[in-house]
TrEMBL record:
<keyword id="KW-0949">S-adenosyl-L-methionine</keyword>
<dbReference type="InterPro" id="IPR018117">
    <property type="entry name" value="C5_DNA_meth_AS"/>
</dbReference>
<keyword id="KW-0489">Methyltransferase</keyword>
<dbReference type="InterPro" id="IPR001525">
    <property type="entry name" value="C5_MeTfrase"/>
</dbReference>
<comment type="similarity">
    <text>Belongs to the class I-like SAM-binding methyltransferase superfamily. C5-methyltransferase family.</text>
</comment>
<keyword id="KW-0808">Transferase</keyword>
<dbReference type="InterPro" id="IPR050750">
    <property type="entry name" value="C5-MTase"/>
</dbReference>
<dbReference type="Pfam" id="PF00145">
    <property type="entry name" value="DNA_methylase"/>
</dbReference>
<keyword id="KW-0680">Restriction system</keyword>
<protein>
    <recommendedName>
        <fullName>Cytosine-specific methyltransferase</fullName>
        <ecNumber>2.1.1.37</ecNumber>
    </recommendedName>
</protein>
<dbReference type="GO" id="GO:0003886">
    <property type="term" value="F:DNA (cytosine-5-)-methyltransferase activity"/>
</dbReference>
<dbReference type="GO" id="GO:0032259">
    <property type="term" value="P:methylation"/>
</dbReference>
<dbReference type="InterPro" id="IPR029063">
    <property type="entry name" value="SAM-dependent_MTases_sf"/>
</dbReference>
<dbReference type="GO" id="GO:0009307">
    <property type="term" value="P:DNA restriction-modification system"/>
</dbReference>
<feature type="active site">
    <location>
        <position position="82"/>
    </location>
</feature>
Length: 461
């Protein structure tokens, strides 16, 4: 699509890899200021876009400093830190003094510079955080500045991109939003093959223990009877054979009530049916990590459900699970390897047909229609492609993950780990472009409809 209009000016706060910049550059916007505190990404932003980014936004400490250092602009974009609002974090929100208060710095820049439009991005949990009060506070503060504000959540898979990654987007306009409609969410199927690069090999081997865990769960799938519907709940192998209390009492409750004996002489079993006729110190080791925390006297309902469901599943399927346990001895694996999430109900049970991800919650098995959500990966969480997808099991490469974020045309950090982390924190450029070209009607004039192909958006700064 080509845009016929005078270029508009934008700023890119918490810029990261520059997903906002790539999207607005595609609409012939001109980046005039960026801020990124992480030194590697700050230097890379200069390489990709020719802008020497500001470092710490906290250094814009007064209205005078903001007015002097932030150029006038038409559009402000910001993927402000999401960790304070994420389910994966402590959810301290604005009380997180290191990151949660950075929204207020965005607010200060909007108040001082008064751009016509803004687009802000964060995790979807921000819409529910603190009982919805965080969302209400953000909208109220922005409306007090004179902006009309709306918020919606989108995932790249709703734009034909094979990644499920839900994110919340706040848009604002000083001229009202009567003209604005959110992009339509597509329901067409996606396919991960569209972003795979067969000419680029993963530079990091999959650890032997990880490969063995994949083989173990692959054998679990093969042994399962074809007529058996596999559980939709996470499979926790450590609960196979366990009988410790979890409904009306917990192991911690018993240890507090019987400080000398604990779970001894109660006829109970720990992980994988291990005996609990031992010292309390040893009992703690034989209770699963999700059930052995001191002072945890009442499990939440979801945990009780998972424990009960797994024990019932084991009892109903011992005829084939017991031989599997005897062969593989999952108790000798890391705790996270003892769990599996089967997200491919109804598919043929060949584990190498799927996209795999090792998480603290277990081995996640997903259909090859989409990638797991890119997150700020540790090296162990990078998606693994099954052998039937690429010829052999391998990690997705940074270049392939960049395609999932529609950032295939920019230079990435030299270190694979740094690249994965940056891509996990990045905003999806195609989603932003679809929102921006509808919002910025006063700045651009579209001469055709949005493209939906998977060609990477490319910055030309």
């Amino acid at each position: 699509m080509r845009i016929s209009s005078k270029a508009f000016r934008f700023v890119d706060l918490f810029a990261g890899l520059g997903g906002f910049h790539v999207a607005l550059d595609e609409l012939e916007g001109s980046g005039v200021f960026a801020a990124e505190w992480e030194p590697t990404l700050k230097a890379l932003y200069k390489v990709n876009f020719g802008i020497d980014a500001w470092g710490d936004l906290n250094d814009l400490g007064s209205d005078e400093i903001i007015a002097r250092n932030v150029p006038d602009h038409d559009v402000l974009t910001a993927g402000f830190p999401c960790q304070p609002f994420s389910k994966a974090g402590d959810q301290l929100g604005f009380k997180d003094t290191s990151q949660g208060n950075l929204f207020f710095k965005v607010h200060d820049i909007l108040r001082v510079k008064r751009p016509r439009y803004f687009i802000l991005e964060n995790v979807p949990n921000i819409l529910k955080h603190d009982g919805g009060r965080t969302k209400t506070t953000i909208i109220r503060m922005l409306e007090k500045l004179g902006y009309s504000v709306d918020v919606e959540h989108f995932s790249p898979h709703e734009f034909g991109i094979p990644q499920v990654r839900d994110r919340a987007y706040f848009v604002g306009s000083l001229e009202g939003l009567d003209h604005f409609e959110w992009p339509a969410k597509r329901k067409d199927p996606t396919e991960i093959h569209s972003v795979l690069r067969h000419d680029v090999l993963s530079r990091r081997a999959i650890p032997e223990q990880t490969l063995r865990a994949i083989d173990m769960w692959g054998d679990f799938l093969r042994r399962s009877p074809a007529a058996l519907k596999l559980p939709s709940f996470p499979i926790w192998a450590m609960e196979f054979g366990a009988t410790y209390p979890y409904e009306d009492e917990t192991p911690s409750g018993v240890w507090a009530r019987r400080p000398g004996w604990g779970l001894r002489q109660m006829g109970l079993k720990g992980s994988f049916g291990q005996s609990l006729e031992c010292t309390i110190e040893e009992q703690v080791k034989r209770i699963p990590s999700h059930a052995n925390r001191a002072g945890d006297f009442c499990f939440p309902q979801w945990k009780r459900n998972f424990i009960r469901q797994n024990r019932e599943f084991y009892q109903a399927n011992r005829s084939w699970i017991d031989p599997w346990l005897a062969q593989w001895k999952p108790q000798d694996f890391y705790s996270s390897f003892q769990k599996m999430e089967w997200n491919a109900q109804g598919e043929a049970r060949d584990i190498d047909n799927f996209v795999l991800q090792m998480r603290a919650s277990g081995l996640r098995v997903k259909r090859p229609t989409t990638s797991p959500s890119l997150i700020a990966f540790t090296e162990t969480q990078v998606p693994i492609l099954g052998a039937n997808l690429t010829g052999k099991r391998r990690y997705m490469t940074p270049a392939e993950c960049a395609e999932l974020q529609c950032l295939g045309g920019i230079q990435l950090p030299a270190s694979d780990l740094d690249a994965y982390k940056a891509l996990g924190n990045a905003v999806n450029a195609r989603v932003v472009k679809a929102i921006a070209e509808r919002l910025l009607h006063g700045l651009i004039r579209s001469t055709s409809t949005i493209t939906h192909d998977l060609e990477p958006l490319r910055a030309t700064a």
